[in-house]
Amino acid sequence: MGSGPLAIGVDLGGTQLRAALIDRNGAVRNRKSVFTKAAGGPDVVLGQIEHLVGSVLQGVDGRDITGIGVSAPGPLDTRNGVALSIPTLAGFVDYPLAAALQKRLPFPVSLENDGISAAIGEWRFGAGRGFENVVYVTVSTGIGGGVIIDNRVLRGRLGMAGHIGHMILVPDGERCSCGNLGCFEAYASGSAFAARAMARAKHAATTLLGANGTAIDSPAVFSAARAGDALAQDLVGEEARILGTGFASLVHLFSPDVIVMGGGLSHEFDALYPAMSARLQECAMPAFKDVRIVRSELGENSGLVGAASLVHEKAENS
Ligand SMILES: [Zn+2]
């Protein structure tokens, strides 16, 4: 990493809390992470952020730091810096997150929705680099995302655009974490995939899934599919087709150059890709059939890097 100004990127997640120094080229240094004390409430979690930022700063000249970019789960009103209700973190309801962070941290804080942060990271420094139109989708415990159109970040009312997981695919379908029925997330997230695998394995005559009492989670299903298990292969194919179906709607809505897929399930991108892209081709109108799906390049760092790049951008424009 060369010299020059540095921003601190913080990625507040329901499971992990990460922080690092990020330079203007998106390079990551001093990355630290801890498990988020998600049940502890805002004071505990903000204390963790303060501590983590302190440890990232060790040995660094504070004069090199331009600010702190924080990526946090939504729905988050980034116009006013308020966490409206974060389902994965206790107590973050109508909580003035930006102001509370600013009180504890020694540099200017800017706040961004996690899906939008990750989309910016991939667009500037990852798999979406060089494209004017990028839709980023993270497929993990839930589904989130962010949209870049015409080289601009799509933020929408209150900065909440891109809640891709909650587009409704199936009327009166499965119950989603948001309370609605039939959301994309309720069918295609890693949790939905694992739940489907558990339900099917119960009724299957022969399958490796759950054999000898082993846990049935996403990695177990992919590994059984690789070992030739028929049920697991069906489940992977089905998951890929559901993802492809959702992506087709995104392609029609936003006309991106690429869809960048991140999150835990993107580790199995190669296993999902054939059926996922075939389904996208099948559902897309003729003029949209050549849109590609690519794997995230920054992985766990996309949110950190994106949030920090907003800090650099602000500093350069001031
Ligand atoms: Zn939903």
Descriptive overview:
- The protein is an alpha/beta fold and 318 residues long.
- The protein has helices at residues 42-56, 97-104, 114-125, 184-188, 190-203, 218-226, 230-254, 269-283, 302-317, and strands at 6-12, 16-23, 28-35, 65-72, 76-77, 82-85, 93-95, 109-113, 134-139, 143-149, 152-153, 258-262, 292-295.
- The protein has a five-stranded mixed beta sheet, sandwiched between helices. A five-stranded mixed beta sheet has the order 11-10-9-12-13, with helices on both faces. It has a three-stranded antiparallel beta sheet with strand order 5-6-7.
- β2 (16-23) and β3 form a beta hairpin.
- α6 (218-226) crosses α7 (230-254) and α7 crosses α8.
- The longest helix has 25 residues, at 230-254.
- The chain is globular and about 65 Å long.
- The two termini are 24 Å apart.
- The structure holds zinc ion.
- Zinc ion (ZN) is lined by residues 166, 176, 178, 180, 183, 185.
